[in-house]
Amino acid sequence: MNMNDTLFLFLCTLLVWLMTPGLSLFYGGLVQSKNVLNTVMQSMSAIVVVTFAWVILGFSLSFGSGNTILGDFTYLGLQHVGFDTQTEISPHIPLGLFMLFQMMFCTIAVSILSGSIAEKMKFIPYLIFVFLWVILVYSPVAHWVWGGGWIDQLGAIDYAGGTVVHITSGVSGLVLAVMIGAGKNFDKRPPHNLIISLIGGIFVWIGWYGFNVGSALTFDHIAMTSFINTVLAASAGSLGWSIIEYWMKKTTSLIGMLSGMLAGLVAITPAAGFVDYTSAILIALIGGVCCYFAINYIKVKLKYNDALDAFGIHGIGGVIGAILTGVFQSQKVNDGISNGLLFGGNIQAVMVQILAVVVTIIFSGFVTYIIAKIIGLFSELAADKVEEEQGLDYVVHGENAYFSGELNKLNRRS
């Protein structure tokens, strides 16, 4: 066991944990004032629900030896998970710490997903959905990519979760959003407090350094490269979004800057430890531009109801990043991988990435549909008329984020 690596991953775990409350604030500022607490609760409750789903079964299904499709029950209820190392998945850090680090990835995935259904879904059915989603969607895909499953054996790579975290959550969020009300309340309401979103965005940005750098599980040259790439990508994504926004609308908005930052971070996540600095900038620039067009044009054209654009940023950004990883991956950066298409590799590097992306999209969407259909047999999924009119904060949680006089002013503006 290496104590330096253990302390390093301990810090990174705390940074990744910070991303979920950060995203709850980011989303909270984007909704109407009467629904801000419900939106925050959807992310914060993910910490509670995911903890139990992960501890009981999720971690074992993700990282138990099992087969190429699913892990076994070796770690059921955290059996054999403690301070000792595990040769195959945590050779120089405690297995318990590795389990917690991975749990934070699962938690932020659920928080991302909640953005698609903000202000639109009943709270208790949402919590039930989250528990089942962790076990039936996230855990199998995590095993395919990081637990020795078929995607790993195929040769497709995902450094820190472009496929596992962002594609699964983005696609699942979109499917769930469409199911609870395609075309309902499609009118775009202005964010009620962009300063709250800014504060949340800053927390997510900081936490992302733990997300990507910690995925090396040690602070070596690959971790250093991923750190620099992550810094570059956040700025490049923001720059790409802002340039195209100014070109199309003659404005450079705060929410555009933050959205571009997120798009750049999402796009670099699968590639952070596999590409050089120039490639990281290009991947993030492309990611920022593609996410901008997905949200401002494709979404408008197709009229799908992705409330806070979780699919537009995380789903699209994850797909772009995963595919471009196969284009830009380099043995000079990481000698554990093959060269990508741009550096003398063959088209296979890109094709295996595309296959992994396509299967993940189909699997996540289909299983999400089944889970939501089953829950829908016992409960309505969409918020009812009273909840929509009076606000989910008051009706569901019995509280308001603001004093009543200030709330009325905010609601009139919203």
Low-confidence stretches: none
Number of β-strand runs: 0
The overall average pLDDT, rounded, is 94
Gyration radius, to the nearest Å? 20 Å
- Shape, principal axes of CA atoms: globular
Strand/helix succession: HHHHHHHHHHHHHHH
Supply database-style keywords.
0% strand, 15 helices, mainly alpha, 414 residues
Structure overview:
By secondary structure, this protein is mainly α. The protein contains 15 helices and no strands. Helix 4 packs antiparallel against helix 12, helix 7 (194-213) packs parallel to helix 9 (254-268) and helix 10 runs antiparallel to helix 11 (310-328). The protein is globular, with a radius of gyration of 20 Å. InterPro entries: Ammonium/urea_transptr, Ammonium_transpt, NH4_transpt_AmtB-like_dom, RhesusRHD.
Topology at a glance:
Elements: H1 3-30, H2 36-63, H3 95-114, H4 123-146, H5 150-154, H6 162-179, H7 194-213, H8 221-249, H9 254-268, H10 277-302, H11 310-328, H12 348-376, H13 385-390, H14 392-397, H15 404-413
Helix pairs in contact: 1-2, 1-3, 1-7, 2-3, 2-4, 3-6, 4-6, 4-12, 6-11, 6-12, 7-8, 7-9, 8-9, 8-10, 9-10, 9-11, 10-11, 11-12
